[in-house]
Amino acid sequence: MTERRVHPVILSGGAGTRLWPLSRELYPKQFFPLASDLSLLQETARRVGDPARFAPPLVLCNHEHRFIVAEQLREAGIKAHDIVLEPLGRNTAPAAAVAALILAAQARGAGDPLMMLLPSDHVIADQGSFLAAVDSAVPAAADGAIVTFGMTPHRAETGYGYVERGLFFEAAGQALEGCFRVSRFSEKPNQATAAEMVESGQWFWNSGMFMASAATLLGEIEHFAPDILVACRNAVDHAIRDLDFLRLNAEAFARAPSISLDYAVMEKTDRAALVPADFGWSDVGAWSALWEAGMKDSAGNVFHGDVITQDVQNSYIRSDHRLVAAIGLSDSILVVTDDVVLAAPKERAQDVKALVETLRAQGRTEAVSHSRVYRPWGFYESIQNGDRYQVKLITVYPGSRLSLQRHRQRAEHWVVVNGTARVTRNEEIFLLYENQSTFIPLGAIHRLENPGTELLRLIEVQSGPYLGEDDIERIEDSYGRA
Questions:
Q1: Alpha helices in 15-91 (DSSP H)
Q2: How many helices (DSSP H) and strands (DSSP E) are in the chain?
């Protein structure tokens, strides 16, 4: 075990589009339990939870996900060092710069902190081997290297970047066991080249996990991508505290180029080092990856949910809501949510990302949100939409409340299904119980609260010429959204 604690930096800004329709922009894959009962984010935070090795994690996330991240960390019993809000996605190089700036500033006078960049949406099966790889990386990172973790390849994968092992990494004139210089990088080779790389035994999958000291990382970013450092320093210097979050300055952060740490620094620096490892890693980058990682039946199938099949082989079938029946499929993906059905050959799994881009170009909401939309107070589910009306099921957590608000273009009817509702309607404040209802006229200032200890569930029927979520004028809000 290392004697120097590492500062985990959990990157939770991705949208996970290749796992659509399960993963969507407002609730991406890192928030789902795909490998255990915990979400991928929770698994990542737990993985670095040993206080002897790791400091509390610094989490960077999209500002739209802030309450989901905070709630999932709370559920997992993880106290974050801080949760930093990115106003827009700028890839991993700016995220790394922001984290290094924050950690360096807070450690001023107390040494140069070691930091480890961890994507929030990876699966790691062997915790012991993971910790051993971390311990192998620490001496090199402390000596000024930027260490990447290379995964032993088990097949000629064309969807990953590769990194080639060079000579042993030396510190203080001695070779460090388990750590090597990086010879070169290769980005997503074709099938024939990937096969040659795997056969050579010298190439490893680039996992996207890195370790370095804050000073080393900032120095290399300043050397190879100074515009990133300038933008990120301004974004951090002008950041503001927003409840339990640190919100980066949006105007400054938008000036940072959107580029990965690999392209911006790792492929140019002479400080790149490699720790080869094999700890059951997957980036869960496509539905085919979930098939590979899943428990297969005698026909090579992975099923999730209520699934019945006949003559189906080597396929991944998932249903989150209803019975799915399949006949005669082979090497296929079939995913059914309450509002979308996805069917594809397994070999075309990576093409899902392009399909999502098409949906976005068409303005389809299915690319952005599920029918269940999470809010800091709970969530709502769209039941039915029609001309001038919409029906939702609203769930409010105990002790939570929605903003004090009004609508300019719609009225609402509320019917309590379970629990107790405290309703503010203009000057009135009253309680509603199970099977009771009320009406919120157009333009009325109103609020819904759950004063009880159980979930509050109610049916909301909206009516009016426009029913979009942007027809909400927040007058007062407990979550800083007014």
A1: 40-47, 66-75
A2: 11, 30
Predicted local confidence at residue 173, as pLDDT: 75
**Alpha-carbon distances, residue 447 vs 94, 427, 432, 469 (angstroms):** 39, 11, 13, 16
Residues 305-339, buried b or exposed e (16+ Cβ, 10 A)?
eebebeebeebbbbbbeeebebeebeebbbbbbee
Measuring CA to CA, which residue among 46, 45, 52 is closest to residue 5?
52
| Domains and their CATH numbers in the chain | 6-282 (3.90.550.10), 287-352 (no CATH), 372-476 (2.60.120.10)
Cis peptide before 139 (omega within 30 of 0): no
- pLDDT score for 342: 97
* Gap between the Cα atoms of 263 and 266, Å rounded: 6
**Lowest-confidence pick of 187-191, 238-242, 263-267:** 187-191
Evaluate whether 307 touches 329 at the Cβ level (below 8 Å): no
pTM of the model: 0.89
Tell me the β-bridge partners of 29: none
